[in-house]
Amino acid sequence: MAKVGQVRWLLAGLPRYLRLVVRLLRDSRVSRSDKLVLAAAVAYVMAPFDLIPDVIPILGRLDDLVFVALAIDRLVKRAGRDVVYELWDGPPEGLEALCGSVDELAGLLPAPVQRRLRREVERR
Fold it and tell me: How far apart are CA 63 and CA 106, in angstroms?
């Protein structure tokens, strides 16, 4: 799938992805620590400090987006395939595209920033 087509497809599925995240956050089978990692990622986005300052065009906002995406990716992967597919209300390929897109998104950042963000997500 072309990059522009892939982005459009992912954006069209955004409401489903958000519903999945909310359902995972409410589900007692999902680890509390994984839920807290996502909360920490959201707090990072709201914090006045960043690995890449927001004044740097594109990259300044991208690190925020990648950090949240990595936290969601962790939440989805660690919840387990059965739980995720039970809570997912879209086609299976939509969920697979979402998971694959996180790595592509992270690849847009400089390697040291990628490593730092991944370490932060996994450390918690």
Answer: 8
Cβ pair 41, 69 in contact under 8 A: no
* Three-point CA angle 12, 57, 116, nearest 5°: 80
| C-alpha distances in Å from residue 95, one per residue of 33, 44, 77, 78, 117 | 22, 25, 11, 14, 22
- What's the predicted TM-score (pTM) here? 0.71
**d(Cα 3, Cα 10) in Å, to the nearest integer?**
10
* Model confidence pLDDT, tens digit, residues 38-79: 999 888 888 877 777 777 777 777 778 778 888 888 898 899
